[in-house]
Amino acid sequence: MTEPHTSAKKDTRGTQRGTASVKRLNTPKLATAYQKEWFLSLREKVEAGEPLAFVNADVPQEIFRAMDIPYVVNQWWSSVCSAKQMSPYYLDLLNEHGYRQDLCRYCSLSLASAFDTEPEKGPWGGLPKPTVAVTRLTCDSQSKIFELWSKKFGVNFYALENTVPREIPNNWWELAPDKWEQLFEPHRLDHMLEDFKGLIRFLEINTGKVFSETKFKKVLQLVNEQAEYNRKTRDLISKTKPSPVSITDTVPAVMVPQWQRGTQWAVDIAKHLYEEVKGLIEAGEAVCKNERVRLMWLGRGLWFNLGFYQHFEKKYDASFMWSIYLALASDAYARYGEDPLRTLASRFVGMEDMLHMPPWNSDWYVKEAKNNNIQGAVHIISDSCTMSAGGTYFVKKAFEEANIPLLQLHADPVDSRGWDNDVMTAKIEDFIENEIGVKPC
Amino acid sequence: MEKESRSSLSKLIEAYDKRDLAAIQWSENQGQTVGFLGSEVPEELLIAAGFLPIKVAGTEKTDTRIGSVYLESGFDPMIHAQFTRLVEGSYSYLDHLIVSNSSDALIRSYYYLRALHHVEREVLFPKPFFHDFLHTKFHSSALYNRDRTKDLINQIEVWTGEPLREERIVEAIKTCNETRTLLKKMDSFRRCEQPRISGVHALKIIGASMFMEKVEFNNLLKQYLDKVSEMPVIKGVRLFVTGSSHEHTQFYEAIEREQAVIVGEDHENGSRYYEGLVDQEVDPIDGIVDRYHYRFNPSSQATVSERVASLSENVVAAKAQGVISFIYRSDDAPSWDFPEQKKILDKLGIPVLLLDKQDYKVADEKGLRKKLNQFIDEIKRNSSKNINIEGERND
Ligand code: SF4
């Protein structure tokens, strides 16, 4: 790897503004070690002439897996840059090119890194040059970011459409795995199926790769196996008091494999996580042996500061034991059906509704809060992202009705420049002490 | 004669300024009114059903704090204003409400409006119906849009209790096309060498067509246009407005007070509203879908290069001497367009002023005036057009 820069401007590269987490489990260590190795081997492959796809998080990566097209997920790369404390440097570059400070920081870090004149000095040698870019039009900025990005590299990009439901289902999580034809309106599934076929043809033409139906079926099966392990892990944690793990452990242990889904490695690591959590429980291990508060972290992870949560464990015996990542991996991914491509469409067609749209998300949060015996929820809202807003009024109302205290905080999950650790800590402390009613240990 | 033209103008202005008046009168006369949010709602179908379609809009008097109880700051202030007017009950006279997917913020507003119906005991607006209309130009989108338009017809038939007859649709298409043709003609009196219609008046006239009955609007506009060539020429620096949309005229007024005239704009309450006719020679549903699908996309639904191409084309056609990119806070789409738009305008030698992170109402009139003055003076001093004034940032 190249040496760090020495010029004044480049000194900002890797500025430490958050703290890394102390890991309780071995699974996240295995996962993070694997992702680095995987990325380095991906670099090698791409340098040897393999195609590379750059995709947004809500793009059906299973299709790329079935076509043997290596891919990098936009938000995963954001989280890596952020964890490496490089987001201030990259985002400053974006601003220097005329884009305003608070513009879509969560999704624009990769574009920002493309403005770097020394891209090889990025995390793990930087992103290799892609062959194609694929996004989904779930907000106004996606097509802008991906078009700008693809033009920068002179590659083609494909935008998948996003459709909107008219029906509000009850308990979507019960219907999602097998009764998804009931859950999603047929015209939305039909359209997504067509869109996926268009994507496959686009990839065939642009990468020269072949879509293997046989491999695709295997990929779907592996994703379901991974989701089932995640579900078992989530269920285990939810009913165990004190909680054996916190989100500091589970977020990397779930999200690294999430971007590798459809591989045997991802199934194995999900299984490893389950067994490790089970082992901790059997050994009587816990985040806080004298657990006094179980907390939920609603919204995106604080990628540059995953160690943030540990302060509250020490001070209050409070464990942040729930995040959307494991819960969504448990409830939103498994799909069983006859037609493989339509089954895949059912995984993606409502993802945005489940995550960000009330009452889909608010109902689900409350169901999860109850199942996990949650005593308080901290909801992080990024003001620079319409998508992450997620119906804060409705979330608040749902928690009020469920009698669960909720704190709504405004912060950007990847841009550490605006993060004030002391202020945020004080707000959560105040919430724990005065809303939940737990004093320091 | 000039007097006659003025009186038709004042009626149009009145319809714009008192934007609920026509709809309330329509309701009182037992007609059904349909509010629409978003620019893909085919007014033709609503008119064919005998409804009065009314655009849901804020006004410069709207206190957006009410909307802010429900919407986060990631939503732009125009959406806050529209949402406010719905939840505070300004549109309680509506029989129906349709939302389409012109922007992400609008789509999310639909979820919120619908969720309010789901969780609140009392709401002061009708249950929203979503018209899901896709913007990519793929064939699959064109087919999807046809099917969703048929769904909308089904919904309309439920509302009226009778089938929507084709001849009524054909008739409504004719009326709406006439509106567009007349507005296009009005536009020619702005883009020509000697403009006779100000930007403020243009914005009000275009807006009036969304707040009143179309046949009446067409008659008034015809009367006005018959005499407009006799109106005095408006002198001033020719400016083009891009960026966010405008549903009140405060900002336009501020510009035109400074010896400038707005000769065009590309937002949804401007020329995009009357861009493109429905083909009257084809199946009416095909004609309607294609017209709404193949217009140039608003910033929220377009790629940067589409916006760059459409801006440079429009600015050249309007013979603008300068461009103002006015962008509401949290309106991310035009902010993504701006740096590339500036590059092309620089190449064309057309100066551009960026007014970023703006509020719904002009907050700092003095500050705005100073910026506008500086920009306009600079253009005047460099009449050769080969100048380059840096856009200002408010970051
Ligand atoms: S609005 Fe949110 S999801 Fe969309 S590009 Fe911006 S940061 Fe990403």
Automatic annotation (TrEMBL), chain A:
The UniProt entry, under Pfam families, shows: HGD-D (PF06050)
Gene3D superfamilies associated with the record: 3.40.50.11890, 3.40.50.11900
Q: Where is the composition biased (Basic and acidic residues)?
A: 1-14
UniProt-recorded name of the protein: 2-hydroxyacyl-CoA dehydratase family protein
Cofactor requirements of the protein: [4Fe-4S] cluster
Region described as Disordered: spans on this chain? 1-22
State the UniProt keywords alphabetically: Iron, Iron-sulfur, Metal-binding
Q: Which family does it belong to?
A: Belongs to the FldB/FldC dehydratase alpha/beta subunit family.
Q: Which domain of life is it from?
A: Bacteria
Q: What does the organism's lineage look like at the top? A: Bacteria, Bacillati, Bacillota, Bacilli, Bacillales
Sections of the chain in a coiled coil: none
From TrEMBL, chain B:
Q: Which cofactor does it need?
A: [4Fe-4S] cluster
List the InterPro entries: FldB/FldC_alpha/beta
Q: Which family does it belong to?
A: Belongs to the FldB/FldC dehydratase alpha/beta subunit family.
The keyword Metal-binding appears for this protein? yes
Organism this protein belongs to: Evansella alkalicola
Q: Which UniProt keyword terms apply here?
A: Iron, Iron-sulfur, Metal-binding
Its name, as the record gives it, is: 2-hydroxyacyl-CoA dehydratase family protein
Concerning Pfam families, the annotation shows: HGD-D
